[in-house]
Amino acid sequence: MADNIFVTSPLLPPLEEFIPYMEQIWQNRILTNGGAFHQQLEDELANYLGVKHVCLFSNGTLALLTALQALRVTGEVITTPYSFVATSHTLLWNGLTPVFADIDPQTFNISPERIEELITPQTTAIMPVHCYGIPCEVEKIQQIADIYGLKVIYDAAHAFGVRQNGTSILNHGDLSVLSFHATKVFNTFEGGAIICHDARTKQRIDYLKNFGFAGETRVVAPGINAKMNEMEAAFGLLQLKYIDGALAARKAIYQRYCEGLQGVEGISWFDAADRFEWNHAYYPVLVEGEYPLARDALYEALKAEGIYSRRYFYPLISSFAMYRHLPTAAEEHLPAANVIAEKILCLPIYPDLTEADQQRVIDVIRQHALNRAKPASPVQHVA
């Protein structure tokens, strides 16, 4: 049995399968700057994901930074406080003003109704997040964007492989940005990508991620160095061979959690109910007042058993010093996000998680529930 159970982990193919890729890189003497593996991974990802164009990046944060540059976003951007800090940090790095909209407490995603009421003459874009890989209300968001002439950039860091109505969720908005960090469903150690819909936009993005070079001696934009190297691209190609198995394993683990936690009073979770093809990137639960322990106490109880869950996302972005001065960061403006942030706990889920180790997680949660004198009542799903 493993000593520690972590919240997530990459699926690691056998080392010997990576050696031929390394040998080819060594023979080619091309380590970066759009080498053969880089080009191949862009093509294979576009085909696998069902999108037109993939622009690879060295990490997802640089991809977000460049997406904002590529669309020439200015002024105010409406976004969510319930995300990883990179979402809003990229706005500050671009000299933009984040405007926080509250979330839907049932999907954890930005509320379209809250978006519309925050639009001002300075608003130029919306940056929603497909939180935990759960799709945003993309049709409603696009309708708002069309009415007010706004750009839409999706932070799709969690949404690799997610499909809705038979098509990739990444095809919505002007751009979607993926993360290939080591903790993600699909990873290249570090890495990321921008998904775009036409060749002209891809060309501009490719200029921007390579210092703005449009040839050996011509620079057309104040770009940045955000290129993915050949080692990461090679690892991505190898990972892609295993991704379907990894997704299937995650789904099975998710379902075992649902079965194992059924009937535990005060523990609720998101139920996709077959509304979309999910990647099961996370297993978020809400620790409600009916559970004997508060969320933080359960977090510590799990950690005491060598089980590392994550309060993800807590604290809210809006509570950090560089954001709390904003009018829309006020707690009374974000009631749902603040409530969810105090209850959320993401349990360990990764393809190599054994049934025995998963049962340890379930047993700890159930044992504390049994310490309550009164009998448990059926769980209330977040759906």
TrEMBL record:
Transmembrane segments: none
EC numbers for this chain: 2.6.1.-
Coiled coil: none
Pfam families xref list: DegT_DnrJ_EryC1
SUPFAM superfamilies linked: PLP-dependent transferases (SSF53383)
Similarity field: Belongs to the DegT/DnrJ/EryC1 family.
This protein's name: DegT/DnrJ/EryC1/StrS family aminotransferase
